Amino acid sequence: MKLARRHFQFRCFFCAMAIVCIAASAVARPAAAPLTFDEARAQLITNAPSLKAAQARFAGKKDTTDSLKGLNYPELGLELRYFRYEHTINNKQADIDSLSVNGNPVPLSALGLGSYEARLSQTALQPLATASWVLYSGGEITAAKRAASAAAEQAGAQLEAVREALDLELVRAYFGQQLASRVLVLRKELLDGMREHLDNAIKLEKGGLVTKAQRLQAQVACDAAQRGYDAAEHSVKNARIGLSAILHTNEPVEPTTRLFVIRQPIASLATFVVGARERNPQVRAIESLKRAAEQGVKAERARWMPKVLAFGSYNFDKDSETLVDTDWMAGIGVRWSVFDKIDRRKSYSAAKQTVAEAAESAEHARMLADAGARQAYDGLASALRQFELLESNLESARENLRVQEVSFKEGQGISTDVTNARIALTNVLVERAVAAYQFDLELAKLLHASGQMDQFSAYMRQADVIIP
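^ Transporter, sequence as received from the core. Prediction below:
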């Protein structure tokens, strides 16, 4: 009884320890958070530092553009001067025509002023209002405002380029993890099937229905299936790390949107090519840069032109005026820079070269976008063809496995035929999942090249086939 009781206590102790270990394992490894593709995209948009940086840059460029809207307006200012001065006047600088003291004229002859020198001093506090208004700048102001607007457009296009690049990477990582998970399931099914086949081979060997060599062949196939499962499990772990990194979270993520295929025709190649040349954000960014460079040319040309401005001032304290000050003043001035320390011809030529550089870069970007759209469209069609061919092979592979298993159990077939049939079925299922992944990725590449990545979810909802 004591031994039985002690045995029972040991069993309870080990059960309790097992429960504690399982609980600790559950705490140490938090469950993966399920996320649809649209939820993952929303999380990416919220967390991505590169997108936040691009948004800040775009907001800054817009603020710069808005800050220049008043360049055509007059400039008003208030000025307060406190100063002391001393000034000497003699007969060589000015003649005294008349002189009065307390309102009474003093004869100049009585003073005998043949030559004189007068020293004046004054301490003054002058509150002034000043104004200036550029009436004509040769186009410099207009060029500055348009250049700032083009820079804001470029920042907006770059923001869209960053967002679309992130969307493409999300498709690659999100559905890449789905592919890895699907392959893991298939490898597990293959491993389970190989273990079952090995058990059957062992039983049949004991009954004398199969040879030892056939049983060993089943063992080798089972070991190979185990290695394939281990490799697939490693791929899933890596895919989870990659997706979590893109979403900027330390928690594992479990995608719930399945791999898909669209069998119905999508838009024509010409539609995507036109979109690539017109809506691709990289192309639009460089074209905005070209427009900014063109305004730079106009600004350099404006440096050759005269500047016309209106100006004025008003003194609020008449008692503090100096001898040469005025109560108020208004006028128009013209300023023309005849000689500039900077070679304006070279500056103008440099600005034109910048335009040429931007134009060539824009054409190059259009060619790359065009080629990317064509390649992705062809890749999409190729992935669809591969998927449809594998669909037709799937039923044949399943039927072949069923026939080989029946033959082996009846002693009419050999172990190699069963393992080959099971491996062939798994390979078809794996290749089918890979083809679906390639379809999804090529669709994303096509939309990315044509500047339509925001339409990926809409295409996803048109799916004809969902991979379990």
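Residues 348 and 432 are 60 Å apart (CA to CA).
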